[in-house]
What does this fold into?
Amino acid sequence: MSDVQLADWRNHALTLESEVNKVVVGQQTPIRLITTSIFARGHVLLEGDVGVGKTTLLRAFTRGIGGGYQRIEGTIDLMPNDLVYHTYLGEDGKPHVSPGPLLMSGENLSVFFFNEINRARPQVHSLLLRVMAERSLSAFNTEHYFPHMIVFADRNQVEKEETFEIPSAARDRFMMEIPIVVPNDDAIMEALVFDTKFHNVDALVDTVKPDVLQFDELNAFSSVIQNSIEASDTLKRYALNLWKATKAPLDYGVKVSGVDMNRLVLSGASPRGMSMMLRAARVNAWLNNRNAVLPDDIHAVFHSTIAHRLVFSPVYEMRRTEIAREMLSGIVNAVAAP
Amino acid sequence: MTKYFRDLLLAAILSITSLQALALDSQNLPDVDEGIVSISTVDPFKRVGYTVGDVIEREVTLTIKAPYKLVETSLPIVGYEKRYKGKVIGIELKEIQHSKVEHKDYATHQLKLAYQVFTNSVVAKNAALGPEYLQLVNTKNSKQLVKYRVPSLDIAVSPIAIFGQVKVENNMSTFLEPLLLKNDQEKTRLKLAAGALVLSLLALLYIFGKHAWLPRMGGNFAKTYRAIKKLPHNDEGLKQAVAAVHHAFNQTAKVSVFNGNVDEFLASNPNFLHIKNEISQFFGLSRQVYFEPSAVHSVGSNPTLWLLKFTKQCRDCERGLIPTTNRAGV
It folds into this structure.
């Protein structure tokens, strides 16, 4: 694929970003990260309080990507088969089976949105893990494939009752965990409250230009990006040092206030996590019109691709978000390149 | 009225006595009583080595108690040829300045005498300034004239040229320092040159020394500047130089500095705001050298030289100075 085509796709990507930024204001960084994950073909976990615009954000992206969009709400009584099919008695009085959210769009499924994933049981998580990892599912004696699917999930970190913490293995399947916070800008906050266009979410999402991207070409183009954007030896060494630092932060002089660093990290970033980080960094370099990955590209995705993969001692799990942020900032500050 | 006549009478008497005094030889008068006159002199330090034409100054201060007064006509006469044993001694009074201050009980006379030597000899010989004889009159008894002898000052007159073989050591005098050429200007120049030399040596010692000891002089960029000056001007040298400058930035900021957090670095190190554009150029160069060979930097055709100047600018910023502008490619 020529540089012209790379530039053409970049324009589409920036258009998508621009469209989403119109309906979800004050979230430029999460929107850039989601764009990155779409082109890196990685699943996204959104974390944020209630009513901050997570669902609106994902619906806006879905409209821009095109393809099939399915959504399911995580509840404590949700069972794995609820994702695959549902049964009902038809008008003829006979039992009928209909495809569930996963199967309904077939291979055209481009976005599967799992709302409040931490309210679902571990059995549901297990099914989702397989679907995320293999993009396939066995049902009705048939293997179903979802080659274009990206899973967006969100979880509410405030409420803990009747929730099931996502295990580290499940978290590791997500390319990114992106925090969504309320913007600090007074003008934006005022607009969100008083501007009536933000009151009707359906109408708001409908303003997004549809099918900006061709969802069924994203996989192929993602490979082009990964093959086109280079990583120098210096950058590889830098990434390697970052990885080592996630495993043994104390070796790099990284400290977190109020934490015994010798006991903090049970497991650093996984090889899959690091490869996902570099995939995302390559996409970030491409979005910034570069031919090679710079340390700044890694920094742009480092927190969102690594923080949720770290496994801390249970005593520090309650402060995971805060500790992970401080530790990863310390690692970026401590590791030099070149 | 009585006082007026008395003063008039005294003036007339003094006039008459002074006229008489001229006729008198002062040396034949009786000496003034002891304690009436006190004297102090300021004599030249040099006592020997005078030759024809030299002028020797001497200052004499006399304090004369009442009722005696100095007969001013008895003061030494300029140009008078003094003789010793009937022979002209060759030292004449060239100039005399007289001033007096009268008080109720005494009067002070200051005499500034300048003698000139008019004699010469093939060998050194003794001579003297004075003595001078002054006449005093008792104002209460106008007929009483007395003398006061101003003591002479012994000097030695030397020949202008030495004849024959002379052993210098035998003729050396502790009163006569050797003639010296004036070298004050040369001494000043020598001191300035020595000062400049010491400062230069200190500067060289600092520049080539391993450690810096002056305040704000041992910074990270100062060390880096010295280090990268020694690196070869090739690709490998450039890579090492860029890495060294990165290291200096990291040490200065105490965190790793990248293109993405340069603004934070500038906020915490505002001295570097003068070279904000150059720092951006540096990260562009680093990108090309270390990460993206196809990228185009904006530092010109000689990045090593540019980097050297950039590091010097950083060093100046580190020292709180305002650096000179670094043009690309220069």
In short: Chain B has a mean pLDDT of 84.
